[in-house]
Write a structure and sequence with these properties.
The complex is a heteropentamer.
Chain A lengths: L2 H22 L3 H21 L3 H26 L11 H24 L14 H9 L7 H22 L16
Helix pairs in contact in A: 1-2, 2-3
Chain C lengths: L2 H17 L7 H28 L7 E9 L4 E7 L1 H20 L7 H20 L3 H12 L1 H9 L4 H28 L12 H4 L6 H18 L8 H8 L2 H26 L1 H27 L4 H22 L2 H32 L10 H4 L1 H14 L6 H14 L4 H11 L1 H16 L17 H19 L2 H21 L3
Antiparallel strand pairs in C: 1-2
Helix pairs in contact in C: 1-2, 1-4, 2-3, 2-4, 3-4, 3-11, 3-14, 3-20, 4-5, 4-6, 4-11, 5-7, 6-7, 7-9, 7-10, 9-11, 9-12, 10-11, 10-13, 11-12, 11-13, 11-14, 12-13, 12-18, 12-19, 13-14, 13-17, 13-19, 14-16, 14-17, 14-20, 14-21, 16-19, 17-20
Chain E lengths: L2 H6 L1 H19 L8 H17 L5 E3 L4 E3 L1 H25 L8 H19 L4 H19 L6 H32 L4 H7 L4 H18 L7 H8 L2 H25 L5 H24 L4 H21 L3 H32 L10 H4 L1 H15 L5 H15 L3 H26 L14 H19 L1 H10 L4
Antiparallel strand pairs in E: 1-2
Helix pairs in contact in E: 2-3, 2-5, 3-4, 4-5, 4-11, 4-14, 4-19, 5-6, 5-11, 6-7, 6-11, 7-9, 7-10, 9-11, 10-11, 10-13, 11-13, 11-14, 12-13, 12-18, 13-14, 13-17, 13-18, 14-16, 14-17, 14-19, 14-20, 16-18, 16-19, 17-18, 17-19
Classes of the chains: A mainly alpha, B mainly alpha, C mainly alpha, D mainly alpha, E mainly alpha.
């Protein structure tokens, strides 16, 4: 068994185990930490696939940014040690059936398919290429999405402001922040 | 060729009078309307007489036969290429004979009504309806084709309905008019079906074409057989059904006695003299087809006629309402006419029955109208219809008494009054063709004499009844018609019908057949005698007899429970067991289904509301499973 | 502007006029004026039509105007009339005219009432002048929908339920119809020419038989729902019972005729082969309608219900005759549509007037009205007699034409069924006389009735118009029958050419 | 460097992760954990993109760029979602998804 | 970037620019001038709408990532009209005190979502499509939660954002499979490389599910009602008309241009979902009391009818879909306009509150009736023509049974539309909504809607233009 296989199995096992833990753990902060592990393992896979740039982005943006955001919000809204009750067994069973059916369906269909690789030469993924592609206006160039995503982020910012912004007097319902 | 086209005015005049009186009479000349109506009818009568004279005495005969003359004809409605409804005037012996008869009686009744109806509310309405009736009846007899006849057939029905229900605030009158209309309407259904079948086979409505013995309609024979009888026979039986209804033959007779709820002049005109004989006229009109193409139907005519006459005569013996007695008598006499047609053949002496029937129709109109008008005068005088409440009226009502007596004698067939001749011909015709029917009619002749004189004696003799106020003789407007009709009853028997009105239009020889005539006179006298014994004075014999034949009497008195049977059919069967279930079915099944569709939709809508539970995760669950299901479906199951 | 389009334009102008009126008192005057104009126009149309025919114009449709509307689907605004549509237009104008006067005393939301009523009528007129299936369908639905408001707002009794039921069932019919029309459209050109909605053009081709088998029932039932075909008639009793007078008049008098007219002009004319193949099914249904409606009427106690069931019976006769597919029967069907339209409108007008006085429609609560309100009562009797087919009034002419025509059918089955249908005339007599006897005759049963007043002038206008027309047709049916018959000839020719018996 | 690991392994891994995320979405009661499940889903998709890109179509970088943008969008989504969640917390004093159902049927 | 590029992309660029302008105004204007922001935004957007109609070059940019054509321009213009109406209808609502601080944000977010939709419609590449769709969704979630002090609004926001996150996850998974089997995201290349194998169909179905979520096709519709009910009315109308319309547009473009190979599959998919959508939408709508929720279910069933235009894959189908969306914009905005006006004036949103509305506010009732009749497809208003063409399109390909089911469904829908009409005209209200006079923007917007409802049907030129710009598979 080659080292990369071992690494893959390691990462895969981590991803699967921690994913499952993320969605089953009864302590919310732990779940967040498990999610972090999943994301880190995923970036490991990216490294394996030779997408170092993306792995880095994954680590910084996802593991660094999003998970932190989530943890903050957890801290804002929950008690850290609070164990929440598991949901009803019915819900779990049906959801599990649905998820497993979906997974089996997808896996069977995937296994059924004969993938064929392109015959063209592979491109080396270096930063220069990524930068060029990102700013290219030609075929296989990504400047437009890049620009649009900036609009998206701007809009997101405004959106977050809209939600958070206090404006005008409360009319119908008084805020009922729980000051415990 | 004589121009008869003016005869259209015989039809148009009464119609215009109806419109005039109906639309404007109430407002502008309520008092005058009687005179206007009577005057108009007098004109028509004159026209009719002129026509009759010209037709019988000046028009050319072809091969010794009176021709059928289409005096006027327009296409009213084109149905198919060949079938079209025409309106027109057809003159032939029977129609001209009817013309004379109808206008005469009608004029008398009009005059009579001037007195009888004086001061009644709706005086102008009465005359308007009478005009409508005259129009319809004349249209019926003058019809050039069977569909025109049907049209006017319906119209006489409706005028009869209107006149029976003249006293529309009287519930019994309303009921009677309704009954008359519906019963005859049911019979007319048969007539219509008959017309449909007939016209489908012969492709024509026209009488001349239809009844031409050498024509295609008859030549093609009976057509294919259907349920054992030829199609033609079926159609003629159906047509006859119309006649049965209108002429109050068994089993559609039940409306006639009730129709006596109408004003008495109406009973005289419509329910004695004219409309009720329309059935006879119809058979006579179609006679060649009956005779050649549908002899089986003709037998039906004969037996129905005979049975009805017997049936009615028996009932008449037990009734106490004088108008009802007369009504049953009418039915019985019409039975005679039907029978005569039924036993008749076509042409020459074989057509004796035909001639006799028409003859009797004519004479009967006179004496029966007379009887009714007389009865009207009596009722006018004593304000009751029941002979049990009358008696000894000969002192108060001399003219009425005399004329009534003449009429009774006439109907009893006492020579030399007209009834004797016509009835004798019928009996003779029956005698030659069917001994059984002859026997029946012979008995009926006796019964007739009996119940007529039972009536006569009960009214004019019998006990001395005490009246609230002294009865007095009717005014001249009422007595003059009585006298005129009495004269008619006496002398019309002398008209040589065998020369004028015969089945093929040709003259044939008849003679008094003593072998028939003498016994018939004898049995008539016997009937009178029995009546004399029983009702000349107050006696207990009738009650005893009634007690002896308890059940028979009771059945006859209750008209053999025919009314109850009909009530049962209409109320129970049609209303309770058909209409109400239909209405229920419609409400609960048909409509219920529609409502059920709606409520099921609502219900489903309510049941599935759980999907929209407000739970985000359930939504997601549906989303995911939906996607997976679609994928499974379209990848593996239904590719 | 061509004369036919005027029939839609005048109602629209009248509505506009009403909209701008400040004073609601003038609404009815404007309506009466507009609809009077419409009646006049109808008369002019009849005259123009007859003179054109007289001058030898033998085209199937006259006064054709054709404007391309939706080019890509070849939808046209196409109008044209033949004798049948002219007759129907005349009928509509008459009933509408009478209807305006019958609703003279509407107080509540008067403006809206007249607007809805006239809007409905513009749909009806549009339907009759259309020769393009699309516009026809458009006008058809346009005619149905104001009904909801008319019944719902101005109705009586369970009006909301009835209005909803009526609207939904009729729209259900039009749903089937829509599919049928689309089917016709996509089969309108078997040889690959431009698809068309134009009836005249479609009639020049033969729709493939499998398509006919599929779309004939849809179309026929679609129209049949409006024509009260059993078992889709149940909207009719409730709807009519709840509707205000003029609406009942217009609905039973005219709108139900859209069903018969459409069944004949679209379903049978365009798909004669399937029609003849499947006619036995519908013949059975329609004869059930005829008999069943009549029996249903006997058991009813509410005047409007009686009349509604009677309409089921009489309209059943229309479809029945249409399905016999010969000229006479079809002629009778059209006559019956007109005759029944007038008679039933008359009935509903009278019922409305009686109701306005007695405040009940239950026959057993009324009695002896003849004495108190003779004019209305006599008119009611006339209406009744017309309805039961008294010669001299229009009902007789129509029914006899139908019966004689239907009886000419070469197959025995159809003739036997005809006899069944004929028997309805007796049942009709039973329920009509029952009503007349209970309602009008006899002694007055309720002392409140002793002080009722007879018809007012506007009521008289309404009633006399209708009675006059009924009598006119009944006395002189020849010109009308011929006008219809001539126009039927090409249709019947086509049917016979495709269905050699 | 990835010899010996068939692409299917990656795909199966991603699929399992995807449906684990779905399972989490369907069962977790806390809105934030639901959000975390969404992250799992998006990550699994990214794995797919990258595996396909690397194994089958290494001549272009479409898969990689797509992943990049998915990450960016995911961040934006999470930001707004968390803002709303906090608002929810203020309104309902809970972020239990089952309690957030004022509107139903 | 040349002028030509600018002209080709003018819709998107102008939108972004105007969003920035509004942002600038918000930042730099004095507080007392801020009340003009509404006016400013509406006028700005009005100009954009007009500019959108000016003739301009079309073509493909960024190596095929951005594509535009007459059809897509038309779609954008239609959306612009709708959005403009929504903007105008919002003015009154934004004047309320509790919203006064967030006016510019409101417009920025709406404009950016619209930009997202325009990008989505112009996408020639799945990445653009994905970003567009997210740009069109995420800010709306924030807008749904706009009413900060209403529980329902927050609930609507969270339901929308989480559901849409799940749906875009599934959509992405589908896209990844499509990418895996074709190796490209460019529409034209995908179309060329697409086969008919299971994995691709799986990818397609997941993709379709994600799109179906936006259009609220059953069974992916459940978020719709709750979100519509909870959101501020203006956002609801925006969601139900503009968002849905945009998604329909891009879906039909993608189906017709990217997936013509598996037309058989998506026809079946649409067949099943269309029936479900119409029926379920109608069945739920029957019982609704809240008008927003009511209109939500009505819009679900409308989506079902719209699918009938998809199924044939024919030019007529696309034309009828686009046309119907246009009609639907006018009709639904008409209905929502009335709801908004009444909600603004009285805060009432329930059907019972509308009892006897005709007697107090006849004009509003008439507009509502007209709009509902148009939605129900009653002549002579535009909805009738719209539905007729949809059904014609389906019938053209022989889907008669489907058409029959659809028309029968319209009867159910007629039932509940009539319920509203009944409430307004027939029912007697115990406490009817009082007579009030709406301000100019509301009346103006409603006037346009009415004109649109009436004219769009009769003016055949509109349909002809659309038809000429449409294409089939």
């Amino acid at each position: 068994m080659a080292s990369n296989q071992i690494m893959f199995i390691l990462f895969a096992a981590m991803i699967i185990v921690f994913s499952v833990l993320t969605v089953t753990s009864r302590k919310i902060l732990r779940a967040a930490v498990y999610l972090l592990f999943v994301l880190v393992s995923t970036s490991g896979l990216y490294f394996m696939l030779n997408y170092q740039f993306l792995a880095a982005v994954q680590l910084t943006l996802y593991a660094g940014g999003i998970v932190v955001l989530i943890i903050f919000s957890i801290l804002l809204t929950s008690h850290i040690s609070q164990k929440f009750e598991s949901s009803g067994w019915k819900k779990n069973v049906f959801s599990a059936i649905a998820a497993i059916t979906g997974a089996i369906l997808s896996i069977i269909t995937i296994l059924d398919y004969k993938f064929s690789a392109t015959t063209e030469a592979a491109k080396e993924v270096d930063m220069r290429l990524i930068g060029k592609s990102l700013l290219s206006v030609d075929y296989d160039g990504y400047v437009l999405p890049f620009e649009v995503i900036s609009v998206l982020l701007l809009a997101t910012m405004v959106a977050a402001i809209v939600i958070a912004k206090k404006s005008g007097p409360a009319k119908t319902q008084s805020p009922t922040l729980n000051q415990e | 060729m004589i121009n008869f086209s003016y005869t259209i005015w015989i039809l148009l005049l009464p119609f215009l009078m109806f419109l005039l009186l109906g639309l404007a009479g109430h407002k502008y000349f309520p008092k005058l309307s009687g005179l206007i109506g009577t005057g108009g009818l007098a004109v028509i009568t004159v026209l009719s007489y002129i026509t009759a004279f010209k037709y019988f005495f000046t028009s050319e005969k072809v091969e010794g036969a009176y021709q059928k003359i289409t005096a006027f004809n327009i296409t009213w409605l084109q149905l198919t290429d060949k079938l079209h409804i025409d309106l027109g005037v057809l003159l032939d012996p029977i129609s001209v004979m009817m013309l004379v008869m109808i206008t005469t009686v009608s004029l008398m009744v009009h005059i009579y009504s001037l007195g009888y109806m004086k001061g009644e509310k709706g005086f102008e309405r009465f005359f308007a309806f009478l005009s409508l009736f005259s129009f319809s009846m004349l249209g019926l007899v003058l019809a050039t084709n069977i569909f025109q006849m049907y049209i006017f057939w319906e119209l006489v029905g409706v005028s009869s309905f209107l006149l029976i229900g003249f006293y529309y605030q009287k519930p019994s009158a309303v009921r009677a008019s309704k009954k008359a209309f519906i019963v005859t309407r049911f019979a007319d259904l048969g007539f219509l079906i008959g017309i449909l079948i007939l016209s489908f086979n012969t492709r024509t409505f026209d009488f001349i074409t239809l009844t031409d013995p050498a024509g295609a309609a008859i030549a093609q024979g009976g057509g294919i057989a259907f349920m054992g009888l030829s199609v033609m026979t079926w159609s003629m039986i159906f047509v006859f059904m119309g006649g049965v209804g209108k002429s109050a033959m068994f089993p559609f007779h039940i409306w006639l006695p009730d129709a006596m709820e109408g004003p008495t002049p109406v009973s005289a005109l419509i329910h004695a003299a004219t409309m009720v004989v329309a059935g006879v006229y119809l058979v006579a009109r179609m006679f060649p087809i009956y005779a050649f193409s549908a002899p089986a139907a003709l037998d039906v005519v004969a037996y129905v006629g005979a049975f009805s006459s017997l049936f009615a005569a028996v009932i008449a013996c037990t009734q106490t309402d004088i108008k009802r007695v007369l009504a049953y008598s009418t039915m019985s006499q019409i039975g005679y006419m039907m029978l005569a047609l039924g036993v008749s053949g076509y042409g020459g002496h074989a057509g004796l029955g035909y001639m006799a029937s028409m003859f009797h129709l004519f004479t009967h109109a006179m004496f029966k109208a007379l009887l009714f008008l007389g009865a009207g005068a009596i009722i006018h005088a004593v304000h009751t219809n029941y002979m049990t409440e009358m008696g000894g009226l000969r002192k108060y009502l001399p003219i009425t008494h005399m004329t009534f007596l003449i009429a009774c004698l006439t109907i009893a067939g006492i020579p030399p009054l007209s009834g004797f001749f016509s009835k004798d011909e019928i009996l003779a015709a029956a005698f030659h063709n069917n001994k059984l029917l002859f026997a029946v009619e012979y008995a009926v002749a006796g019964l007739t004499a009996f119940y007529m004189f039972r009536l006569y004696f009960s009214i004019f003799w019998g006990k001395d009844t005490h009246y609230h106020h002294t009865p007095h003789e009717a005014p001249a407007t009422m007595t003059i018609p009585l006298i005129v009709l009495a004269i008619g009853s006496v002398f019309t028997g002398l008209i040589p019908f065998n020369e004028l009105v015969t089945s093929d239009g040709k003259v044939f020889e008849t003679e008094l057949e003593l072998i028939v005539a003498i016994p018939s006179v004898l049995i008539g006298l016997l009937g009178i005698g029995i009546a004399f014994v029983m009702y000349r004075k107050e006696s207990e014999i009738p009650d005893k007899l009634a007690a002896t034949f308890k059940y028979g009497y009771k059945w006859a008195y209750n008209k053999f429970y025919m009314d109850e049977l009909y009530l049962f059919v209409t109320n129970k069967i049609i209303f309770r067991y058909i209409s109400e279930p239909v209405a229920w079915f419609d409400r609960h099944i048909v409509d219920g289904t529609m409502n059920a569709i709606a409520s099921v939709t609502q219900n489903v809508s309510f049941r599935i509301r759980g999907f929209q539970s407000g739970q985000l995760q359930k939504y997601a669950f549906v989303f995911v499973t939906g996607a997976i299901m679609l994928a499974i479906l379209f990848i593996y199951l239904w590719k | 502007m061509d004369i036919l389009t005027l029939f839609v334009v005048i109602p629209v102008l009248t509505i506009t006029g009403i909209l701008f009126l400040k004073d609601t008192r003038h609404v009815r005057l404007v309506s009466a004026f507009g609809m009077g104009l419409q009646l006049l126009l109808a008369a002019v149309l009849v005259f123009l039509y007859l003179s054109a025919r007289h001058a030898g114009n033998t085209a199937e449709m006259l006064f054709i105007k054709d404007y391309l509307w939706f080019k890509s689907l070849n939808i046209h605004y196409a109008v044209g009339v033949d004798g049948i549509s002219v007759a129907m237009i005349a009928l509509t104008s008459l009933v509408l005219f009478a209807g305006i006067f019958a609703s003279w005393e509407i107080e509540y939301l008067r403006k809206e009432f007249f607007i809805s009523l006239i809007l409905l009528s513009s749909g009806v007129f549009g339907f009759f002048i259309s020769i393009d299936l699309f516009t026809m369908f458009l006008f058809y639905e346009l005619a149905v929908i104001p009904m909801y408001l008319l019944i719902g707002i101005w109705g009586t009794g369970p009006k909301e339920y009835s209005a909803m039921k009526l609207t939904l069932m009729l729209m259900g019919g039009s749903a089937l119809l829509l599919v049928g029309l689309l089917g016709i459209y996509f089969n309108s050109s078997p040889d690959g020419n431009l698809l068309t909605f134009n009836i005249l053009e479609i009639s020049k081709v033969v729709i493939p038989l499998p398509a006919q088998r599929l779309f004939f029932p849809l179309t026929f039932v679609g129209f049949g729902v409006l024509g009260a075909l059993f078992p889709f008639h149940t909207w009719s009793p409730d709807g009519h019972a709840s509707a205000p007078t003029a609406v009942s008049m217009l609905h039973a008098g005219v709108l139900m005729k859209l069903g018969g007219y459409g069944a004949f002009r679209v379903a049978i004319f365009l798909m004669p082969e399937a029609a003849s193949e499947l006619s036995w099914i519908f013949i059975i249904l329609t004869s059930i309608s005829v008999i069943y409606g009549a029996f249903g009427a006997i058991a009813q106690k509410d005047l409007k219900y009686i009349n509604a069931y009677s309409s089921v019976s009489h309209c059943g006769l229309v479809l029945f005759a249409v399905l016999m597919m010969n000229k006479t029967a079809m002629d009778g069907a059209i006559l019956q549509m007109i005759s029944h339209g007038l008679i039933t409108a008359l009935f509903f007008a009278l019922i409305g007037m009686l109701y306005g006085r007695t405040h009940t429609r239950m026959i057993n609560e009324m009695g002896g009205l003849m004495k108190v309100i003779p004019f209305l009562s006599v008119c009611y009797v006339i209406a009744g007699l017309a309805s039961l087919g008294l010669p001299g009034l229009s009902g007789f002419v129509a029914e006899m034409t139908i019966f004689v025509g239907a009886f000419q059918h070469p197959e025995l089955f159809y003739r036997i069924v005809t006899i069944l249908a004929v028997s309805s005339i007796v049942i009709t007599a039973v329920y009509i006389l029952r009503v007349v006897a209970i309602l009008l005759l006899g002694p007055t049963t309720n002392e409140h009735f002793d002080h009722l007043t007879d018809a007012k002038w506007f009521e008289k206008i309404s009633v006399v118009t209708l009675i006059g027309s009924v009598a006119a047709i009944g006395l002189a049916p020849f010109w009308l029958s011929t006008m219809i018959g001539t126009s039927l000839q090409p249709i019947v020719d086509r049917i016979i050419a495709l269905n050699p018996f | 460097m990835n010899t010996g690991i068939p692409i299917q392994y990656f795909l199966i891994l991603a699929t399992i992760m995807f449906f684990t995320g779905v399972y989490g979405f369907l069962t977790r009661r806390n809105l934030i954990t639901i959000l975390m499940s969404v992250e799992l889903i998006l990550n699994s998709v990214n794995i797919n993109f990258l595996a396909f890109n690397r194994y089958l179509y290494p001549n272009k970088l479409e898969g990689m760029f797509f992943s990049l943008f998915v990450i960016a969008v995911a961040a934006a989504e999470v930001a707004v979602a968390i803002a709303i969640i906090i608002n929810i917390y203020r309104r309902f004093t809970t972020i239990n998804v089952e309690d957030v159902n004022e509107m139903k049927f | 970037m040349s002028l030509g590029t600018f002209l080709v992309m003018r819709h998107e660029l102008l939108l972004i620019a105007s969003a920035l302008l509004v942002l600038m105004a918000e930042i730099f204007w004095n507080p007392d001038k801020k009340r003009y922001i509404s006016l400013f935004s509406v006028i700005l957007f009005g100009v954009i709408t007009i500019v959108g109609f000016l003739p301009s070059p079309i073509g493909s940019l960024f190596g095929g990532m951005y594509e535009t054509s007459g059809t897509r321009l038309l779609m954008k213009n239609i959306l612009n009209i709708g959005a403009l109406l929504v903007f105008i209808q919002s003015v009154t609502w934004l004047k309320k005190e509790e919203n006064s601080e967030k006016i510019s944000e409101y417009f920025i977010l709406l404009i950016s979502t619209l930009a997202g939709m325009n990008f989505m419609i112009s996408a020639g590449h799945f990445l653009m499509f994905y970003i567009g769709i997210e740009l069109a969704t995420i800010p709306i979630a924030a807008l749904a939660a706009f009413d900060r002090y209403k529980n329902k609004s927050a609930e609507a926001g969270i339901k929308l954002i989480l559901s849409s996150a799940l749906s875009s996850g599934i959509l992405l998974y589908g896209l990844s499979l499509i990418y895996g089997t074709t190796g490209t995201f460019y529409f034209n290349e995908v179309a060329a490389l697409f086969g008919n194998n299971n994995l691709q169909i799986l990818g397609f179905i997941f993709f379709f599910a994600g799109m179906a979520f936006k259009i609220s096709i059953v069974p992916f519709h459940l978020w719709t009602a709750d979100v519509y009910e909870g959101s501020p009315v203006n956002i609801t109308s925006y969601l139900s008309v503009i968002s849905k319309g945009a998604a329909v547009f891009i879906l039909i473009i993608i189906l017709f241009t990217v997936f013509p190979v598996i037309i058989a599959t998506w026809q079946k998919t649409i067949y099943v979902t269309a029936i479900l959508t119409m029926t379920i939408g109608n069945l739920f709508a029957i019982r609704q009391q809240n008008l927003k929720r009511f209109l939500a279910f009505s819009s679900i069933s409308q989506a079902g009818y719209i699918l009938l235009g998809f199924i044939g894959g024919n030019q007529l189908g696309m034309a009828s879909v686009i046309y119907y969306i246009l009609v639907y914009i006018f009709s639904n905005l008409g209905a929502f306009g009335v709801v908004i006006a009444i909600s603004n004036a009285t805060g009432k949103e329930n059907m019972d509150d509308y009892n006897g509305l005709y007697h107090t506010n006849p004009k509003l009732s008439l507009i509502m009736t007209l709009a509902l009749f148009s939605l129900a497809g009653i002549p002579p208003v535009a909805g009738f023509f719209g539905k007729f063409f949809l059904f014609t399109a389906a019938a053209q390909k022989g889907y008669y049974l489907l058409v029959l089911i659809a028309v029968l469904n319209t009867i159910i829908s007629l039932y509940y539309y009539l319920l509203v009409v009944k409430a307004m005209f027939i029912n007697k209200g115990e406490t009817p909504i009082e007579k009030f006079r709406s301000d100019f923007p509301t009346r103006f917007a409603l006037g346009i809607c009415v004109a649109g409802i009436v004219v769009t049907g009769f003016a055949s030129i509109i349909f002809e233009v659309i038809k000429n710009l449409s294409f089939g598979v």
